[in-house]
Amino acid sequence: MKAVEAIGTSHPDILIVFASTCFEQETLLKGITSVAPSALMVGCSTAGEILSDGPSRRSVAVMAIQSDSLRASTGLGLTLQKNPRQAGREAATQAIQAKLANPHGFLMFPDGLTGNVAEVLRGVQDVLGLSFPIIGGCAADDFSFTQTHQYFQGQVYTDAVPGLMLTGPIAVGVGARHGWRPLGKPRNVTRAFANVVQELDGLSAVNLYETYFGKAAASLKSESLADMSILYPLGMAVPTEDEYLLRNVIRVDPDGFLIYAGEIPEGSEVRLMMGSKAKALGAARKAAELAIQAVAPRTPSFAFIFSSCSRSRLFGRRAEEEIFAVQRILGKEIPLIGFYDYGEQAPLSASGFRGLSYFLNESVVVATVAAP
Amino acid sequence: MSNSTKIIVIGSLLLLILLSFSDLMFLRAGYSTFILLIGILLLNNQEIIQHQIDGYRKELDRISRICEELDQNTKIIVQTDLELTRTQEALDKRVQGLYSLHELSKKILAVRSVSDLIHLITEAVVTSLGFEKALLCVVAADDPRHPLLVAQSGFDGEDSRKMDVNRLLSALYNPVLNPGEPLFVPEANAKRSLRGGGHPNMPENTLREIGTAAGLNSYAAIPLMVKGLPQGFLLVGTNPPYPKLETGDVELMAILVSEVGVAIENLQLYEALKESYEELEERVKTRTRELAKANDELVRLNKMKSDFVSAVSHELRTPLTSIKGYTSLVRAGKLGPLTPEQSERLEKINHHTDFLSNLITDLLDVARIESGRVEMRIRPIEIPKILDTVADLLTPQMKEKDLTLRLQLTPDVPPILADESQLHRVFVNLLSNAIRYTPNKGTVTIRTTPSDFFLQVDVIDTGYGIAPQDLPKLFQEFFRADNPVNRERKGTGLGLVLVKRIVEAHGGRISVSSQLGKGSCFSFTLPWHHPEKNML
């Protein structure tokens, strides 16, 4: 409600809502739509909200946009679990049906717990083309990993993907970075299905961590391994890109299978990655720089930030440092909204932002929108 | 295979094709020879290739070994890094915790009620200290088993509904509140024994029960002590996937809770202070109202008195004028010659009439000033000038008693703003008093001392002086000090009253100091800037 008041009109065109699952979701959305019933609305539940003032928890973040130049259309894909690719196609198809000129970027907030988001992304790319910038974060639920919610036109969904197409004489810039570097021997994924890695180099997948962590591994329980994989995720090399795609362990199967927060195809080559808070902060700055360079010479009118919940866990009580680092580069006065997610989507390459978008883990995505 | 070998092999194959189609015998023989040659060549090449393969294999083994070694190093790096990270994390957590605590302390100072305080604390424990849930309960002072105020944060709607604070309090009373010791359970739902938690006296079931009651897996309960008595408890905790509590967290919470204890104590003191202050203020107000009322009454009475005096004096003056007129007629012998006895009596009548007339004039002046009917004409006045005229006026009397007048005036004193006739009156009054009460051959001194804000004038005599008990009464109406002069001569007792009124109307002060037998000093001040008030 504050957000709507802040732009000085009761008729915003677009509402973007990120909220904690601690609120009664339906009531929350009813409250928000009652203020601006005619606006387009997308959003999702989070593992922490991000605003210009810094990160906050157990709160609601709303961005209200009203613009003469920026036009938007929305789309919703359902049943990710059953057919993620089709859900992606559906969301994208609905969004382009409005036939608005000059599409610049597609925002999406899929349910990362039910479906394979890499497949959803492919579905969107089937419709929008491989080089179209797709930006977003997976809905989250305050680290419970049980059920997330997606918001679309005042309704609460789960197992869905809401999307928002940004069009018009605007410029959209994206920067996505994580800051981790590969370490040690490359390993082959010899048995895997979607996001479950069963064998690496013919050995039980959990063996990888046991090898590297040595003695400590014996005392590792599945949940602390998930914690440690924040510091030491797996990385997949991407052809023609410097950055590796990161994958975090969500949990360990009793059989020693590793369940990751993103697909790892069988046959791919993976490496253990190492990072630090300082490197992660540096990556956030880099992402912000890329996002601002991409819209230069214009200055951004507003910006989105989608940061991984793993990063929030990694930074702990100092999570605001990451947000402030980004703000210092974007400019403190640029309105900023975002959330801590369960996986990010963004193009990795900076060249013209026409690069392929990927499903990322443990990264920070900064997207700038410059309206004339 | 090297390039030359390739050329040879390809050339040979081309020749072979050519030769195999030939009919000539010798060419066929040549063909056989070529086959033979190629065979030899291939065999030879095979050896070279084999040799090369062996070389590559060795190289591959070497690289693979290096790779393995590097991977071993990686393990060391990862393990060192892990250890560093853990240490760093523990440190960061500690530092951050202390920092947040410091920030929180500042906020605590501004809080003015216990209810606000406990809400602030639970909110901060969840939002800035990063624990999942927090509950702070303050118990009734007279009944520590009865929860008085409860604040919670991080518990969602359902949790709060299920939460039974009474049950929690009774479960925590014996282990935590009564002995004043914190309870720390790192993992209530752990399958293994909880005895590692350091609570040998607590049955495991109780620990699990508290966890269930609060809906927490990892929790700590810290007693809130005020003046050494249990006044409540703070319960913090987490559930997976939030990290479990550690000893450091509990220490941090203990610091926080002790601070809360102090804050509550301060708030109680503040409340008590505020109450007594308010009571005092109320009393002062009542008393002020009473005094104001009494004052109003006094002012009214005083005015009545002044009006009365004024009226009576007027009524007295008319017959007095007739008496004086007729007396002087008789004295002048206009009604026939007078015997010396008659003359002497008439002289006395005249003298007493004069006295009565002066008394009435003074009385009228005092009454006029009191009723505020005298207008002042403020002008810049030069003190030496006014003193000259006063001295002129009083010289005969001084000569009569052989007194010396000494003027100690600061040179170049700027003019002072005052009403000339009134100021004249002040000097005449003070000087004639000094002359009157100073025995023959004495000295009267007038001294001026300028300061930043006012000019001080002292009139000093070497007279009889005033008894200490009389000093405070000196400026009261009709008061007459007991001394040889007063016993002989009558006075109205109104002169100094008039002087005081006039000086005060100019914004100044008058005071007196005296020593019996040595003399008196009357000091008055006149401000350089006359206050905005021009009525006496």
Defining traits:
heterodimer, A: 372 residues, alpha+beta, eight-stranded antiparallel β-sheet, six-stranded mixed β-sheet, 10 helices, 25 strands, 34% strand, B: 536 residues, five-stranded antiparallel β-sheet, five-stranded mixed β-sheet, 12 strands, 59% helix
Provide an overview of this structure:
The complex is a heterodimer of chains A (372) and B (536). With 372 residues, chain A is of the alpha+beta class. Chain A has 10 helices and 25 strands. In chain A, helix 3 (84-97) runs parallel beside helix 4, helix 8 (277-295) packs parallel to helix 10 (319-330) and helix 9 packs across helix 10. The longest helix of chain A is centred in the C-terminal third of the chain and has 19 residues, at 277-295. In chain A, 57% of the residues are buried. Chain B is 59% helix and 15% strand. Chain B is built from 12 helices and 12 strands. In chain B, a hairpin with a 3-residue loop joins strand 11 (510-515) and strand 12 (519-527). In chain B, helix 7 (247-331) runs antiparallel to helix 8 (340-370). Chain B is elongated, with a radius of gyration of 58 Å. Chains A and B meet through strand 13, helix 5 and helix 7 of A and helix 2 of B.
